Amino acid sequence: MAPPVLRILERLARQPTAPLHEEAVLREAARIARDANLRTRTDSFGNLVLRPGGPRRGPAIWLVAHTDHPGLEVTGPGKAHLLGGVAPEYMRRGTRLRLYHEGERVPARLTRFTKARHAIRFDGGAKARAGDFGVWELEDFRIEGREVHARQLDDLAGCAVSLAAMARAAKSRSMNLSVLLTRAEEIGFVGTLGAIDSGLIPRDAWVINVEASKVLPGAEIGGGPVIRVGDRQRTFDADAENLLLAARDRLPQSKPVQRALMSGGTCEATAFSAHGYQATGLAIPLGNYHNMGPRGRLEPEFVAPKDLATAVDLLELAARRPREGLEAGLRLRSRIDRYLRLYGSRLKASRPDV
């Protein structure tokens, strides 16, 4: 039987999503959360907030993942606007589109793309109206060997990992874990910034951004989830990272965890750290980032199921024993300081005259 995180991911991946049009994913995520006896609500920006029931002990840890994926928004008859980062060479004439009008699938084909305005022209889609949205006509979800293929794993994979970890937290009073599933990340962290502006997450909380991230040399698909030192814009908080490093050290060798600077893009941890939060990231190595496959063709993204499962185990351990991570920084400082105690007096005694 597939692990719970894969079953959750399949349920999410079969829902269409695009920036500003995440309703189907959010509703499915809320159903999954309620089935796990989690408390659910939305904030004023439509982000989904998940909390376990009852009082919780220990430092608060928040997992953050986003529910959108690059897609398009219909602006008029035969016209649409690209939402999210997809290179122009992938916007080929004849690319199959799946538009949605009042929940109904409407097939169409791309006929022209204007790079300067991110403008799309399409044929078909007669029922589509301004304000509707669309996705690429790619498979929703498929398990093939040691890989999961789906149209929108960035970042529904992060959402699935977060939901699976929260389902475990619901069964344990010792885990002070919460989840924020955000909207419109692909067009500028809009939901994330709204949550930060409203003060939804307490300033003394630890934030872990869970995201499928473009595979890079040194971070292999199937090599385990990646403790994300930083992204394209900045490095993250070392104390927050210690939560994950301490948990990694408790996992068996059969569940490897990688550590790398994932510079393929910018993630929500940057937004939180820029606003003063102690934030870090956990990445799931991702193939065909933003559906940009080989030979300039749009293809499903793919990840390794075992990376997802290990990510859930890692987050559970981090939330169960957060103080081990918090104490790791103190132990490191103590180890470093002993060199000053050993040799500091000799430096003073041998100070040269210059």
Outline of the structure:
With 354 residues, the chain is of the alpha+beta class. The protein has helices spanning 4-13, 23-35, 153-169, 190-198, 238-248, 268-274, 305-320, 322-349, and strands at 39-42, 48-51, 61-66, 71-76, 79-83, 96-101, 104-114, 119-124, 133-136, 142-144, 147-150, 177-182, 206-214, 226-230, 258-261, 278-286, 301-303. The chain contains eight helices and 17 strands.
What does this protein structure show overall?
The chain is 31% helix and 27% strand. The chain is an alpha+beta fold. The protein folds into 2 domains: 4-66 and 147-327, 3-Layer(aba) Sandwich (Aminopeptidase); 71-136, Elongation Factor Tu (Ef-tu), domain 3. Strand 10 (142-144) and strand 11 (147-150) form a beta hairpin. The chain is globular, with a radius of gyration of 22 Å. It starts with a helix and ends in a 5-residue tail after the last helix. The model has no long low-confidence stretch (mean pLDDT 94).
